[in-house]
Automatic annotation (TrEMBL):
Keywords: Amino-acid biosynthesis, Cytoplasm, Diaminopimelate biosynthesis, Lysine biosynthesis, NAD, NADP, Oxidoreductase. NADP(+) binds at R41. This is 4-hydroxy-tetrahydrodipicolinate reductase. The gene is dapB. GO terms for cellular component: cytosol. It is an enzyme of class 1 (oxidoreductase). It comes from Tepidimonas sediminis.
Length: 272
């Protein structure tokens, strides 16, 4: 990616979604950013509307479905959509040399590999949670997991709004990965995602997940380290999606001027 100076021209995918709208407001409010395009699906009722119409404002950018036209006038694409949409956007970003900030969750292993391959050609920030608080919580979990390696059972409980389509959340899975790695293990070898019926006793070393869905919960995550005679609970609660949008703009600024590479919010926030 060649040098880019502010105001950074940013395209938003999933423009009429919960995060898309939050991102459009954040880009319009940031002095060093410029809304260059707003994208939605070809059959979206939002096509043809002003990108800020939902807020009763005018941005001068119309929501469209022409990905190539949008990327031709952009240097960054922020994508909070669905895995299938992200993969199509990724291929187009490589063709146009556009940097990507990916907040979408629910990727399978093949899709994660494709993102890593694309990041050999364009710079990409991929993170299941862009908030500063969650990423600091991940560091706390690393420390706790190292100190509580023996004799403590790990359970991760997450709650989200009734519209969320993937489970466990990308954040909960990342928490499990961070804890397992801090203990020299792999999440796929110890994760327990379901318990029903006669389960038998808890396997030693398991990392258990539980999912709550309902109402308008923005995003709650609690990790329990359950020992004999005590338990530690580390909780993060989001009360606004604005934190995810602000984190995404920090990711854009981090990517400006980088040629390629796959990064996460630890890189963006200097937490690695
Ligand atoms: N990393 C982070 O910090 C965060 C990540 N997320 C993740 O972001 C994603 C989006 O969340 P949210 O905004 O709540 O979801 P919404 O359903 O509200 O919005 C998704 C948007 O993407 C569009 N979309 C869906 N499928 C496709 C596709 N195949 N191609 C192009 N566009 C598509 C939708 O259009 P349509 O309505 O027409 O289907 C909609 O505009 C989820 O994966 C969620 O887990 C959410 C919050 C924070
Ligand atoms: O879908 C959501 O809303 C959220 N998704 C992300 C996830 O899956 O972890 C981040 C946040 O929890 C909100």
């Amino acid at each position: 990616m060649s040098a880019v100076t502010p105001p950074y021209p940013i395209a938003i995918a999933g423009a009429s979604g919960r995060m898309g709208r939050m991102l459009i407001e954040a880009v319009l409010a940031a002095d060093d950013c410029r809304l260059s395009a707003a994208l939605d699906r070809a059959d979206s009722p939002a096509l043809g509307q002003d990108a800020a119409a939902f807020a009763g404002r005018t941005s001068g950018v119309t929501i469209g479905a022409d990905l190539d036209a949008a990327l031709a006038r952009s240097r960054f694409l922020i994508d909070f959509t669905r895995p299938q949409g992200t993969m199509a956007h990724l291929e187009a970003c490589v063709r146009h040399g556009v940097a990507m900030v990916i907040g979408t969750t629910g990727f399978d292993e093949a899709q994660k590999t494709a993102i890593a391959r694309a990041a050999e050609r364009i710079p990409v920030v991929l993170a299941p949670n862009m908030s500063v608080g969650v990423n600091v919580t991940l560091k706390l979990l690393e420390l706790a997991a190292q100190a509580l390696r023996d004799g403590y059972d790990v359970e991760i409980v997450e709650a989200h709004h009734r519209h969320k389509v993937d489970a466990p959340s990308g954040t909960a899975l990342k928490m499990g990965e961070v804890i397992a790695a801090a203990q020299g293990r792999r999440l796929q070898d110890c994760a327990v995602y379901e318990r029903v019926g006669h389960t038998g006793e808890r396997p030693a070393g398991a990392i258990g997940f539980a999912t709550v869905r309902g109402g308008d919960v923005v995003g709650d995550h609690t990790v329990m380290f359950l020992g004999s005679g005590e338990r530690i609970e580390i909780t993060h609660k989001s009360s606004s999606r604005a934190t995810y949008a602000q984190g995404s703009l920090r990711a854009v600024r981090f990517l400006a001027g980088r040629a390629s590479g796959l990064y996460d919010m630890f890189d963006v926030l200097g937490l690695r």
